[in-house]
Amino acid sequence: MGGGGGKPLNIFKLNLGDDPKEVLNWKLWFAVFSFGIMGAARGIDEGLISGTFNTKQFQNSLGLKSLDPVDYANVKGNISAMVQIGSVAGALLAFLVADRIGRLWATRQLCALWIIGIVIFMANNGNLALVYLGRFIAGIGIGETTVIAPVYISEIAPRSVRGLCTCVFAGSVYIGIMIAYFATWGSSLHINQNTAASWLVPTSIHLMFAGIIIALSFFNYESPRYLVKQGKVELALANLSRIRNLPQDHPIVQGEIRDIQHQLEEEQEATMGAGVFGLFKEMFLIPKNAYRLYLGLGVQLLSQWSGAGSITIYAADFFALLGTKGQNEKLFATAIFGVVKFVAAIMCAFFLVDVIGRKRSLSIGIALQGFSMAYIAAFLTAVPDLEEKGFKFTPSQKHASVGAIVCIYLSGFGWAMGCKSHHNQCSCHVLMEDRELNSVPPFG
Predict the structure, then answer these.
(1) What is the pLDDT of residues 362-383, one digit of tens each?
(2) What H or E segment, with its residue span, contains residue 165?
(3) Nearest in space to 2 (alpha carbons), one of 430, 425, 441
(4) What phi, psi does 41 have (nearest 5°)?
């Protein structure tokens, strides 16, 4: 998690360069917090859905117990995937919405979709089609967060701390996962699992976060970049002055507005009369733009293919396969997994990665993930089906089971150290270049 220029970021001693100390004020940090917590949206869903699906009342209401194993697995996969599918549409939609109605109203719009989708999902009344529809609509809103929040933060953050501010969003994913895991575990302890409340109460966390984000949006200022693009230069100047805690005639405020105007003018000149073909040419054939595109896509694809997302979503099921007995025990182990991921992400991003270097941390992280997955695969291949009636571990199998459970935690640490840390850094690097180079920014 770096601040730019390839130099490690020390969060305890930030180098402000030529910026006065006033720029790091409570209004800036409040804005970063308000939009950064949108990262929890995806984490909450990933942490909740498996526990929701496994509750007795949810399965009984949808008649899932009567399905054969193949159909059961397909329905479970489809329900989990609907938010991911909706997120693809939401991420694409966000580019248009953010430029049409502004970053603040785009945030309120995505929260409205998020809430509507979750309400439909919670009110399904045993209708599987409503489960799919609700999660897809919620996914559109959740997908929009991945564009709108980082864009807004990158547009209002000073250059010296832009990397840190932008990566608050990525770090919030772990907070969402941890909260969701503990909510599911708490529900299993204190709520009758044969009632709808067993999954409705944890799912309501979606509504809480969406409501908080909407409320916070009314206490923040619209992005100066968006306002300049709309021709509202005076309002942009006033907003930037408030965010920087500096007078409107201060050289830094005036300079930032001029830089924004210059970049937007170059963007208009570069895309004037280009048409769709010209825009694609601009995106893929200009080296600087192509580099950012390939870097972002490559990091996203490879990090997802590492399988960490599947472990997060199906963590409770993995612990059950590895020998953790009892619903409460499974969910407790899952909650601890959330803590491990959160603590590992903080340790690696702020300290360990900068100490041992980016490439080395990526190699070690991938190696830990690979070893963990290989061990778990070997264990599941060697040990008989745990669902067989009366099956009990031998002493050696019990030790191997403990080792496999440890590997789940180890894979979470390896993900935070390797793929996730570099995913965050590359995303921040791309966003910072978009705001600092005089070229066409992909976010508009």
Answers:
(1) 888 888 989 999 999 999 888 7
(2) helix 162-190
(3) 425
(4) -55, -50
Domain extent for 306:
274-444
* Residue 229 domain-assigned (yes or no): no
Torsion-angle region of residue 177: left (phi > 0), alpha (psi -120 to 50) or beta?
Answer: alpha
Q: CA–CA distance from 304 to each of 68, 144, 238, 297, 360 (Å)?
A: 29, 18, 41, 11, 20
Cα separation, 272 vs 150, in Å, equals 27
Regarding whether 210 and 89 lie in a shared domain, the answer is yes
Contact between 28 and 139 (Cβ < 8 Å)? no
Q: What is the CATH number of the domain that holds 68?
A: 1.20.1250.20
Model confidence at 183: pLDDT above 80: yes
Identify the pLDDT of residue 440.
34
Report how many helices (DSSP H) and strands (DSSP E) the chain contains, helices first.
19, 0
42 and 168 both lie in a single domain:
yes
Report the number of distinct structural domains present in the chain: 2
Same domain, 152 and 32: yes
Backbone torsions φ then ψ of 55, nearest 5 degrees? -70, 145
Q: What pLDDT, on the 0 to 100 scale, is given for residue 341?
A: 85
Q: Percentage helix, strand, coil, to 5, in the chain? A: 80, 0, 20
Given a contact cutoff of 8 angstroms between Cβ atoms, the answer to whether 228 and 268 are in contact is: no
CA distance 180 to 210: 14
Inside any domain, residue 379: yes
Q: In this structure, are 278 and 213 located in the same domain?
A: no
Same domain, 172 and 312: no
Asked if residue 352 lies in contact with residue 345, where contact means CB atoms within 8 angstroms, the answer is no
Question: In degrees rounded to 5, what are phi and psi of residue 62?
Answer: -95, 0
Query: Is there a contact between 130 and 77 (Cβ–Cβ < 8 Å)?
Result: no
SS3 24: coil
> Which residues lie closer than 8 Å to 399 by C-beta, 6 or more apart?
none
Q: How far is residue 115 from each of residues 41, 94, 95, 112, 141, measured CA to CA in Å?
A: 11, 17, 20, 5, 8
* Burial (CB count <10 Å: 0-12, 13-18, 19+), residue 149: buried
Q: Which two tokens stand for residue 413?
A: 């640490």
Given a cut of 60, whether residue 432 has pLDDT beyond it is: no
Residue entry with tokens 């309400």:
119
Beta carbons of 132 and 181 less than 8 angstroms apart? no
> At 69, which amino acid appears?
P
**Rg of the Cα atoms in the chain:** 23
